[in-house]
Design brief:
584 residues, mainly alpha, two-stranded antiparallel ribbon, two-stranded antiparallel sheet, 64% helix
Length: 584
């Protein structure tokens, strides 16, 4: 707090805060300028679509011509803002500022024809309706920005995700706006919803980007359809219902054949939603047959098309869709086979880590498939130098003859090598993140302690991994599973109680060293993870009974070893007797 004179204080704290805010805003805009450019391009594109939609729709002063009819009492006065000459289609002229209809009076046939002439004349643009639509789209983009912010989405939305969703939104918005130009879709609101491919794009978004992203897109696209259909509630409610139900149906599928059943389910729900809306709005069921068939075809064909589009899209966008992850989890793929041949110990370790991580993620509601695939590939960086890692060693440890600093360089290099191989294999970013984060920036304790005995001033940073702590639940679970699986191999007499206590200590150590600070795991979820680990490992390390005829494979060798000294004793006795005789 400073004063320029005796009476007027200057609040430097607020000025600093405002300065920090604007600097932060400028930094974010500079960092996310591709998203900003994308938003501007999307707004311009939607503006062009709205322009053609408004100028070629039957709108008068922001009202639909369909709301007027001959004999109706006008709810407002409408006058022409410019003169319109007679044409072949409309052989009558309209004067400047001529009153077409008057509030409180019945609309005549001549008045209705003049309204129709104004709406269909290209030169007569309803700028008020156009500006209203632009304002609506602008507000919708603000809502879109809020929904896809990191606090609500739970992660930072990728540019490619926003791009593909804007493309999908424009396609749906365009269908809802221009479909009524075709006579079949212009019959009623229930004919219009047939032309809107909502289920197709919801299927793709759910598979490519997840359930939460699809739910937010459902809200945005439903509000877009509301505007494109001149604020008709039937298309809006139908789009919202189909979007939410499609998201729910598709979120748990695991195989491609499941897409067929999902398509049939959506086709049936389309019909159900249509019946409900007919009842709610007290509509006639006269044209129900054609609508039922068309809506069923819409739902089924949407699923089949989504099945065809998902493979090229997941390759181009490099997303972790369920089908892509299932392909990567195939243990017969070249990478997994090479890992088995070159580093069999690491391969077996990865299989156990995958089992632990997958079950733990299922228990806490995280993506178990991402965790399983991430665990399979988390140590692929060990393939080239497998002999330097203890799980692959069967004889002498190469690190016994190496300087601890050199050993640390070799050990932590497997993370960097793994990330490089993952990029070469074009693995999804979620899997690459698990590979990069599964050790975080933790200390390589064994070599650090060895070096500390010789050099007390050694720094922990020199003996730490160069990665970052896990940022997702799946990555954190793989880290914990990796640590637990490796450590429990050294535990003597691994009973349930000993496993539970030991795993609790391992998790507490990760917390103490701030390796779980960046991930959204709760203490309750850590407890569930620990219990899941104990259950799996207790079954893995359970004791077995000894069969009656079972022989110890080392028994023969032990017997031979025992016989060798006894034969030496006999030979020495014979030798001593001979010496006694010779002496005598």
């Amino acid at each position: 707090m400073q004063k320029t004179n005796d009476t007027q204080p200057v609040n430097t704290g607020n000025s600093k805060k405002s300065g920090n805010f604007f600097r932060s805003l400028a930094l974010n805009l500079k960092k996310d300028y591709p998203v900003l450019i994308l938003s501007v391009v999307a707004f311009i594109t939607l503006g062009i679509i709205c322009f053609f939609g408004v100028t070629k729709s039957l709108t008068v002063a922001a009202f639909s011509l369909n709301e007027y009819e001959v004999g109706q009492i006008a709810d407002r006065t409408i006058e022409a803002d410019r003169p319109l000459p007679a044409t072949a289609a409309y052989p009558f002229a309209i004067g400047d500022h001529e009153k077409i209809i008057k509030k409180g009076f019945a609309i005549t046939e001549d008045g209705y024809r003049k309204l129709e002439k104004m709406a269909n004349t290209k030169e007569y643009i309803d700028y008020r309706a156009y500006v209203d639509t632009l304002l609506y789209i602008f507000l919708l983009m603000i809502l879109w920005t809020l929904l896809y912010s990191k606090p609500l989405l739970g992660r930072k939305a990728a540019f490619k995700e926003l791009l593909i969703q804007i493309i999908f939104f424009i396609l749906i918005y365009g269908c809802a706006m221009f479909a009524p130009r075709i006579q079949f879709f212009a019959r009623s609101s229930y004919h219009l919803i047939i032309a809107i491919p909502t289920a197709l794009f919801i299927f793709l978004i759910t598979l490519l980007f997840g359930e939460r992203s699809s739910v937010f897109f459902s809200i945005i696209v439903s509000l877009g359809v509301l505007n494109a259909s001149n604020y008709d509630l039937v298309p809006f409610l139908f789009t919202l219902a189909v979007s939410f139900s499609s998201t729910r149906i598709i979120r748990k599928i695991e195989t491609r054949i499941d897409m067929v059943f999902a398509s049939l389910a959506v086709a049936a729900l389309n019909i159900v939603f249509m019946f409900i809306l007919k009842v709610l709005f007290n509509e006639s069921f006269d044209d129900i047959a054609s609508i039922i068939f068309a809506l069923a075809a819409n739902g089924f064909i949407s699923g089949i098309l989504a099945l065809g589009f998902i493979t090229p899209l997941e390759q181009v966008l490099n997303t972790a869709s369920v089908f892509r992850l299932m392909d990567l989890s195939d243990l017969n793929n070249p990478t997994m086979r090479k890992l088995l041949l070159n580093a069999s110990g690491t391969y077996n370790h990865s299989m156990m880590v995958a089992t632990l991580a997958e079950n733990a993620c299922k228990e806490i509601g995280a993506n178990s498939l991402v965790a399983r695939v991430g665990a399979y590939y988390h140590d692929i960086g060990k393939m080239d130098q497998s002999e330097y890692f203890v799980e692959n060693q069967s004889g002498q440890n190469k690190h016994d003859e190496m300087n601890p600093s050199l050993s640390v360089s070799v050990i932590r290099s497997h993370v960097k090598r793994g990330v490089e191989k993952a990029h070469q294999l074009h693995l999804p970013p979620q899997i690459i993140d698990i590979i990069a984060e599964h050790h975080g920036n933790s200390v390589i304790a064994y070599f650090y302690n060895v070096e500390k005995q010789n050099n007390p001033d050694v720094r922990e940073e020199d003996f730490s991994y160069n990665g970052v702590p896990p940022t997702t639940k799946e990555s954190a679970v793989v880290m914990l599973a990796d640590t637990v699986e490796a450590a429990c191999r050294t535990l003597e007499k691994p009973s349930v109680s000993r496993l539970d206590k030991f795993i609790q200590q391992l998790i507490a150590a990760k917390l103490e060293h701030h390796q779980l600070d960046n991930c959204p795991l709760t203490f309750k979820e850590l407890t569930v993870i620990r219990e899941s680990f104990v259950t799996i490992l207790a079954g893995y390390y359970h004791s077995r009974i000894e069969y009656p005829d079972q022989k110890d494979p080392d028994a023969d060798e032990k017997k031979k070893a025992d016989e060798i000294p006894s034969s030496k004793k006999v030979a020495s006795k014979i030798k001593s007797k001979k010496e006694e005789k010779n002496g005598k």
